[in-house]
């Protein structure tokens, strides 16, 4: 599996993993800031962005993809930061390969099982007939009628690309991800354990990491700290980028 990536900066490696239906593009501005202190790799995970598409999509495969990527880049160990699905991938990887992870940062996702909750977005995306579309605006209007959320629609529209000629396609593997979406909620196994410094960041308005989840987090990640960034939901890094950056840099440099 060849993963598309961008690298910037010098110093200790820091690998950033995006969330479900996202891409490395979501992290470019923050990667630029972090590259002042670290060698930052932003990656398109399998079935996303410009990375290869495959029929299967689960955390074991994404964990192996990340290991292969680090081998290809001659990275013996790195700080790893992941958001949502990327955060769950980072947790799976860290508990399986603790020697490859110096510090772990998990953004607005816990190690528990999450019921499938992407149905509405996937239904909306699958209801777009790209064979009849001639402008981006037509797709945007259709998605707004279905989802009625400007922020979500704008975020999804970043994945729409124009092919040679006049046709459009999605950057992500919509059919494959629709079939495999149940795997996105998978919990870490009972035996999972990662002793190294770990930071969980949650949005103050998000319900992905609850106070009730802290016991499970500290059971698997005994060195974990939890930071809550107010006035932000699930996309903490996009909604409060300055506060997010300050929390990340403080953890990486001081803990």
Question: What this model shows, in words?
Answer:
- With 255 residues, the chain is of the alpha/beta class.
- Helices cover 36% and strands 18% of the residues.
- It has two domains: 5-113 and 186-254, Alpha/Beta hydrolase fold, catalytic domain (Rossmann fold, 3-Layer(aba) Sandwich), CATH 3.40.50.1820; 119-181, no CATH class.
- Strands 1-3-2-4-5-8-9 form a seven-stranded mixed sheet, with helices on both faces. The chain has a two-stranded antiparallel sheet with strand order 6-7.
- The two termini are 34 Å apart.
Give structural attributes:
single chain, alpha/beta, Rossmann fold, 2 domains, 7-stranded mixed sheet, two-stranded antiparallel sheet, 18% strand
Query: How many structural units, i.e. domains?
Result: 2
CATH homologous superfamily of the largest domain, by name?
Alpha/Beta hydrolase fold, catalytic domain
Tell me the fraction of residues in β-strands, as a range. 15-25%
Question: Kindly, what is the distance between the CA atoms of the first and last residues, rounded to a whole number of angstroms?
Answer: 34 Å
Overall helicity: 25-40%
What profile does the largest beta sheet have?
A: 7 strands, mixed
CATH fold label of the largest domain: Rossmann fold
Mean pLDDT: 96
The top level CATH class name of the largest domain: Alpha Beta
SSE order, one letter for each helix or strand? EEHEHEHEHHHEEHEHEHH
- CATH architecture group name of the largest domain: 3-Layer(aba) Sandwich
- The strands making up the biggest β-sheet line up spatially as 1-3-2-4-5-8-9
Number of helices: 10
Shape by Cα distribution:
globular
Low-confidence runs: none
